[in-house]
Design a protein that fits this description.
- Belongs to the TRAFAC class TrmE-Era-EngA-EngB-Septin-like GTPase superfamily. EngA (Der) GTPase family.
- GTPase that plays an essential role in the late steps of ribosome biogenesis.
- This is GTPase Der.
- Keywords: GTP-binding, Nucleotide-binding, Repeat, Ribosome biogenesis.
- By secondary structure, this protein is α/β, with parallel strands linked by helices.
- The chain is built from eleven helices and 17 strands.
- The chain folds into three domains: about 5-160, Rossmann fold (3-Layer(aba) Sandwich), CATH 3.40.50; about 175-350, 3-Layer(aba) Sandwich (Rossmann fold), CATH 3.40.50; about 355-430, 2-Layer Sandwich (GMP Synthetase, Chain A, domain 3), CATH 3.30.300.20.
- About 35% of the residues lie in helices and about 20% in strands.
- The strands form four sheets. The protein has a six-stranded mixed beta sheet, sandwiched between helices.
- The longest helix has 16 residues, at about 65-80.
- It is elongated and about 85 Å long.
């Protein structure tokens, strides 16, 4: 079990900036508005010969709003489950009354705590951070998360508190699954039910999830990394920079995912937004599972299932290789099946054909259905699979201008009929065979 490190502190002290710096990429949304981070966000970090899980948390607040209460509860849980706490304070503004309250709460948990005095951009500014020793923590590091100053010193401090067992076997490749869909379709409920604890704040107001939330869960004896994304809106509904940043963060998360789960609402069907998200997933060349959530609220299930399947095949024709699964994130109905299906589609996504397997199918397809256009016959001389994740095939033709999309679809269907490629896009590229270098 990896050591768990929780980043805590009041809003706007730079917790998400520190999280991004520790993991080496911009994953958490950073914004001057307090409360931007509302959920706990996990990511594995390796430093020297050790690894640990770092958790970004919502800002600790004494505000009485519903969100602030939820965020404080999330923070309490994160500290309780952590082995090491990074207590982040703002070195420019000095000790804040809320810092004192947080320090008292952390001490009650009796966790190893490293005081991180952030926004110290130069050595000369370190003197301003000495007042934070009054909070009662002797282990302190003065850093600038934005500029990376002294972050390596902080990593060394964390490293000193990580138990290292050389006998631990390297775990299998952990599948990363991303949940995508418009706001309020049940992505956060999916996370909470799958994790068997409240990891994401659930609220009726669309857009509650602003950032991409990453959680490690267990299902059927296997570990998965599950990412809940901020709800994607149509472009015309992007009204402010916060929503823009949320959409941008979601796109980055899609890039990193192994499998995408597109969630639709059973009461709304598959509409324009779902089609646009599906096109985005296809553009990113990701394997996809389509799910219809809130299935527990549907009465005529047999007729509804038929309707949804027909709607999927009609509105998302370009993704007819994706299966549709009817779930209830609230009750947990068929959630286990999602993870089983994710294993299957990722294997298809990673599939590599031998030269002999490919030859047999393509030769038969070309002989069975030659293609002629304007008295010219398309001739394909060479073909090969050149990549996986997704599977990519290159065909050398006498004239690529003769390759009609319908014939390209015919070849794709032949490959799918023989080898499956279930749940995954496959890419066919054509080049003139007198070009020796492949694209």
């Amino acid at each position: 079990m990896l050591t768990k490190v929780a980043i805590v502190g009041r809003p706007n002290v730079g917790k998400s900036a520190l999280f991004n710096r520790l993991i080496g990429r911009k994953k958490a949304i950073i914004h001057e508005t307090p409360g931007t981070t509302r959920d706990r966000n996990d990511h594995e970090v390796s430093w020297r010969d050790k690894s640990f899980i770092v958790t970004d948390t919502a800002g600790w607040s004494t505000d009485i709003s519903v969100f602030s209460k939820d965020m404080s509860r999330q923070l309490d849980i994160a500290v309780e489950k952590s082995d090491v706490v990074l207590f982040v304070v703002d070195g420019k503004t000095g000790v804040h009354p809320t810092d004192v309250q947080i320090a008292q709460q952390i001490r009650l948990k009796r966790k190893k705590t490293i005081l991180v005095v952030n926004k110290i951009d130069t050595q000369a500014e370190e003197i301003k951070g000495y007042e934070f020793y009054e909070l009662g923590f002797d282990d302190a590091v003065f850093v600038s998360a934005n500029h990376g100053r002294s972050v390596h010193d902080l990593l060394d401090k964390i490293w000193e508190n990580i138990k290292y067992d050389r006998k631990v076997k390297k775990p299998r490749e952990t599948l990363e699954i991303i949940l995508v869909g418009k706001p309020n379709v049940g992505k956060s409920s999916f996370i909470n039910t799958a994790a068997k604890e409240e990891r994401s704040i659930v609220h009726d107001i669309p857009g509650t999830t602003r950032d991409s939330l990453t959680v490690r869960i267990q299902s059927n004896g296997k570990e998965y990394i599950l990412t809940d994304t901020a709800g994607l809106h149509r472009g015309s509904k992007t009204k402010d920079d916060m929503e823009y940043l949320s959409n941008l963060s979601t796109n980055y998360a899609i890039e990193d995912a192994d499998v995408a789960v597109l969630i639709a609402d059973a009461s709304q069907g598959i509409g324009e937004t779902e089609v646009k998200i599906a096109r985005l997933l296809l553009e990113k060349k990701k394997p996809v599972i389509v799910t219809v959530n809130k299935w527990d609220l549907i009465e005529e299930k047999e007729e509804a299932a038929k309707y949804f399947t027909e709607q999927l095949r009609e509105r998302i024709k370009f993704m007819n290789w994706a299966d549709i699964i009817f779930i209830s994130a609230k009750t947990g109905q068929r959630l286990d099946r999602i993870f089983q299906e994710a294993e299957i589609v990722f294997k298809q996504y990673s599939k590599e054909l031998t030269k002999e397997e490919l030859n047999e199918v393509i030769r038969d397809a070309l002989a069975r259905k030659p293609y002629t256009c304007k008295s010219r016959t398309l001739k394909i001389k060479e073909y090969a699979q050149v990549a996986s994740k997704p599977p990519v095939f290159i065909f050398s033709a006498n004239d690529t201008d003769l390759v009609h999309f319908s014939y390209e679809r015919f070849l794709e269907n032949c490959l799918r009929a023989e080898f499956g490629f279930h749940g995954t896009p496959i890419v066919l590229k054509f080049r003139n065979y007198y070009k020796k270098k492949m694209d």
